[in-house]
Design brief:
Rossmann fold; alpha+beta; globular; Immunoglobulin-like; 690 residues; four-stranded antiparallel beta sheet
């Protein structure tokens, strides 16, 4: 029930701005960039040339040369905004040969990629591209933390001569200044602490997070950190979940849509709900919001124009998660447009039970509670299923590419089942059997419609209504995440994401599918695939505990990795069905009689940190056993792996600062993960190069 002492802000949401420290003066930071010999390659593709640089991404609009880029994101002082970046070139080289660099191509999954379309202003312009190696400089806010991103490409291409130049070493400097227009506000200690722990795996200067954190609110009234928003008629159905969240240590509450509509102003019901969420976040400690509702007054439809007359007109629950601004800066009541000043960083984690039917709500409530209390022990907890369809077989592009990238992030102690299509035109088709045997994570990378996810070759059904009806995995519920088009189209009746959640014999406990078309960028990984990999980073590499935080952090990390064609589309359309506070099964600690989790019983520490040469990893585990140490860069790419047998339960391993290929580790932020049969532990570090 709603607390009697709660007094909403009737007309608008305000923020407490009193007694806040003044922002720091103008400043900046520099980092050294180095690209080792052999760090990229030129490949022939469809009659042209492409640059393959692992860990980088396309950064220019469709039609402009596909020169890959890297990005660095830094936390900066409160009240500051990034203003510019510069590149001091230390060494560069002209790549031998004449090249026809293909343009960026963004294609809905399953559509014919068609010909490459070249921007004549670039390809016929007579000058080298780009004019500056600094692609973009942006500032955003994530739960009160100010973030500045510089995106940089080391490549320059002259279409007239066909020459490609590459910067091999450089120093990149990012500058910021005080910004009177930047919001500065205080938040609750739990909100700040949770955001800080997530940002440790995203920013390149995690050591500066404590100094740059938003002020912790000293007074005011806290409501609840977790709320479920639903019509009054569903309160009794949802009450067991509210009780469960309260018993797990959270402050939890049911809030009726009727109360919100009577208490908060707004152009429509969606804006009224957002104004309540924004008030609860800014002034009363909200961190997680579960919205209950099918097609109708709780779903915000985006109107993002991607060009060519195509508008994303589907559900975008990021509207309730990214709480900066109004999502309608131009005031035309079309939300999510490029002209609406969207920040794209999450402030809270949001999930949805996409139904209005009490029986289906009851099923989701039961699944969530049982998952966190009485899920059976066994190997299913550390088993993953990866299905890779032919995305564009005629162009040599396969879903197994993104699956293999995800597999690099999964701990070595897990069991992976890979069901892949190949050029032979056949594929394994036992995915339902594998799910029924028990897995905790499913990555179905294929083509999609609202009716399901599909293989390229027959039999085409991968995750469809008929197959969902055959799932008998009750109790061993997996988490699903996919690039497939329309599989999460909430504006139709019973899309595959909803069917997985509504299943009374098994299915899923959380699903993250697209409400509209997923996008690829052959031959490069497209934005939908990048989001998949970022989610795997949060779940497996960084060990984020709750599924809603994983999804929000994955989007934040993707945004922080720099812009690319169709990125904003993908950030808006991929929604979470499920409770955002859901503890992933390997992170559970046995609350309510469940089996103990595996993720909190090992540890790894690093010294010195920062390091500039060899460094030591101090590890501990419940008992002596074999273990694997893995080093990941800021993109989640595996850099170094060492496997050892330990005769003691704690000790030290020295790493030499080299990659598996023998090249020196580049300067930057890394994560070191310790994997054992008892679980995993991790620690971040800064490497300053040699």
């Amino acid at each position: 029930m709603i607390a009697a002492a709660r007094i909403p802000l009737a007309a608008a949401v305000s923020v407490c701005l009193s007694a806040l420290p003044a922002p720091a003066s103008a400043g900046g930071t520099s980092f050294d960039f180095s690209l080792p010999a052999g760090g990229f390659e030129m490949v022939e593709y469809e009659g042209g040339d492409a640059i393959c640089w692992p860990g980088a991404s396309p950064c220019f609009p469709e039609g402009q040369p596909d020169l890959p880029a890297m990005a660095r994101t830094f936390v900066i002082p409160q009240g500051a905004s990034a203003v510019e970046a510069s590149v001091e070139v230390i060494s560069e080289t002209r790549i031998d040969g004449r090249y026809d660099i293909l343009p960026v191509r963004s294609v809905p999954l399953g559509s014919d990629p068609g010909p490459f379309l070249r921007d004549p202003g670039v390809y016929m312009g007579g000058t080298a591209f780009p004019a500056s190696n600094v692609v973009s400089v942006e500032t955003g806010t994530r739960t009160g933390f100010r973030l500045a991103t510089v995106q940089f490409t080391p490549f320059t291409y002259d279409p007239a001569s066909g020459s490609v130049t590459c910067i091999m070493q450089a120093r990149v400097t990012l500058r910021w200044e005080d910004d009177p227009a930047a919001d500065t506000f205080s938040l609750g200690a739990a909100q700040v602490g949770n955001a800080e722990s997530i940002l440790e795996g995203i920013v390149s200067n995690p050591e500066d997070l404590p100094a740059c954190r938003p002020p912790v609110r000293g007074g005011g009234t806290d409501w609840s950190s977790w709320v479920v928003i639903a019509p009054e008629a569903l309160e009794s159905t949802l009450e067991p979940l509210v009780t469960h969240r309260s018993a797990s240590g959270m402050t939890a509450e049911f809030v009726s849509t009727e109360w919100i509509y009577s208490s908060y102003a707004g152009y429509d019901t969606q804006e009224q709900i957002r104004n309540y969420i924004k008030d609860a976040y800014l002034n009363h400690g909200l961190m997680y919001a579960l919205i209950v509702g099918d097609w109708g007054p709780t779903q915000r439809m985006s109107s993002l124009d991607i060009g060519g007359g195509t508008i994303l007109n589907e559900t975008a629950d990021l509207y309730y998660s990214d709480l900066d601004g109004t999502w309608d800066s131009d005031g035309d009541h079309l939300y999510g447009e490029n002209t609406d000043g969207i920040n794209y960083y999450s402030d809270i984690a949001v999930g949805r039970f996409s139904t209005d039917l009490p029986a289906q709500v009851a099923t989701m409530v039961q699944k969530t509670i049982e998952y966190e209390t009485v899920s059976p022990a066994g190997s299913w907890r550390t088993r993953a299923l990866l299905c890779g369809a032919g995305l564009w077989p005629e162009y040599g592009y396969w879903g197994r590419f993104v699956c293999d990238s995800i597999c690099e992030r999964i701990p070595s102690s897990w069991v992976e089942t890979k069901l892949y299509e190949y050029s032979s035109g056949s594929h394994p088709n036992n995915q339902v059997d594998v799910i029924n045997e028990g897995v905790s994570y499913v990555s179905p990378q294929g083509h999609g419609f609202s009716s399901g996810i599909y293989w390229y070759y027959a039999p085409t059904s991968m995750i469809t209504a008929g197959l969902i009806n055959q799932m008998t995995n009750w109790g061993m519920f997996p988490v699903f995440h996919s690039i497939a088009c329309l599989a999460g189209q909430l504006s139709v009746s019973g899309c595959s994401a909803e069917r997985l959640m509504n299943s009374t014999t098994g299915g899923a406990v959380a699903v993250m599918f697209n409400s509209n078309n997923g996008y690829g960028a052959p031959p490069s990984m497209g934005p939908s695939e990048h989001l998949e990999v970022h989610f795997a980073n949060q779940m497996f590499v960084l060990g984020v505990q709750r599924v809603g935080d994983m999804q929000a952090a994955a989007k934040d990390a993707f945004k922080a990795a720099g812009g690319m064609s169709m990125q904003n589309w993908v950030l808006q359309e991929n929604n979470l069905l499920g409770d955002p506070a859901l503890l992933f099964v390997t992170n559970q600690t046995g609350l309510g009689g469940g089996a103990p989790g595996q993720g909190l019983r090992v540890a790894a520490g690093i010294s010195p940190n920062p390091a500039s040469g060899p460094f030591s990893v101090y590890w501990s585990m419940p008992e002596p056993a074999g273990f694997t140490l893995s080093v990941f860069d800021v993109t989640g790419r595996l850099v170094r792996t060492i496997t050892q047998e330990a005769s003691a339960s704690s000790g030290m391993t020295v790493l030499d600062g080299l990659s598996d290929g023998g090249a020196p580790m580049a300067s930057g932020c890394y994560l070191v993960r310790l994997d054992t049969a008892a679980g995993s532990g991790s620690s971040s570090m800064v490497y300053l190069g040699r």
